[in-house]
Design goal:
This protein has 279 residues and is of the alpha/beta class. 38% of the residues lie in helices and 15% in strands. A 7-stranded mixed sheet has the order 3-5-4-6-7-8-9, with helices on both faces. Helix 3 packs across helix 4 and helix 5 packs antiparallel against helix 6.
């Protein structure tokens, strides 16, 4: 899908009310790989749209470092326009959750419901980065990307049970992570200034308390990338925010607890869909 000077790769499945699935920001991430255990289940009830976010997969590379969440949200707004979709539900994991939440704050008229799994940008300026986030942000630094670095991040920090992640998935993500265009402009890096860091912390955005969009937050209690306390921070600030905490689960709720994720997300989003669009 091309619009402006951007090209965003998307996959679609199902029919009905539109649901956009936004993947996380780890090295080599893509829409289809992040939601491999969810697309078919959600497509039984919705029109499921799965993009590679800007900077990842087969989409245009490069993200504005001064305001990455805003840049990614602008791209999703452009995608909605290109697809002639006035409003949609958004499901976002990690960086994708930050993108979805920023879009909801910037253009609440275009977002009908949110499902956020361990979203980025919550309390990030109120404590030092977690060890997992540090590993993620340092992937392209130092000696540069490597299979061992990625294997360590995924098995030791991304999920609770690292042995459950197939080696071929890790290798596929590694190959995607060393695309020369990605290496030249990594999409997820440390904020270049204090102003940029503050802009990336949603708990410092006064609009959050006025965001009445129905929101479901799902967070693994063993998340080593984004602190699980972020769930309560969102629930205490957002008027219509439900929170589910998953025991023995890391940063990848939609993959680690796929069956429960699919059931909870389907039920929540069906409730928020226009009556005529429910299936």
């Amino acid at each position: 899908m091309s619009f402006g000077n951007r090209k965003i790769f998307i996959s679609e499945a199902g029919t009905g009310y539109p649901v956009v699935l936004l993947h996380g920001g780890g090295p080599g991430a893509s829409g289809l790989s992040n939601y491999s255990r969810n697309i078919d289940a959600l497509a039984r009830h919705f029109r499921v749209i799965v993009p590679d976010m800007q900077g990842y997969g087969r989409s245009t590379k490069g993200v504005n470092r001064q305001d990455p969440f805003g840049d990614l949200a602008d791209v999703m707004l452009g995608l909605l326009d290109a697809l002639d979709i006035p409003r949609a539900h958004f499901v976002g994991n990690s960086l994708g959750g930050a993108c979805a939440l920023r879009l909801a704050l910037d253009r609440p008229d275009r977002v009908s419901a949110l499902v956020l799994m361990g979203p980025g940008g919550i309390n990030t300026t109120r404590a030092l980065p977690t060890a997992g986030l540090g590993k993620l942000l340092d992937y392209y630094g130092g000696t540069g990307p490597s299979l061992e670095k990625l294997r360590s991040f995924i098995r030791e920090y991304l999920v609770h049970d690292g042995a459950a992640v197939p080696e071929d998935m890790i290798r596929q993500r590694y190959e995607a992570s060393i695309d020369p265009d990605v290496v030249a402009a990594p999409p997820l890096r440390r904020p270049p200034s204090l102003a940029a860091a503050l802009r990336m912390d949603f708990t410092r955005d006064r609009r959050l308390a006025k965001c009445t969009i129905p929101t479901l937050v799902l967070w693994g209690t063993a998340d080593k990338v984004n602190r699980p306390s972020g769930g309560k921070a969102l629930q205490s600030r957002m008027p219509n925010c439900d929170l589910y905490l998953f025991a023995n689960t890391g940063h990848w709720v939609q993959w680690e607890r796929a069956e429960e994720f699919n059931a909870a997300t389907t039920a929540f989003l069906r409730q928020q869909s226009p009556e005529g669009a429910r299936r």
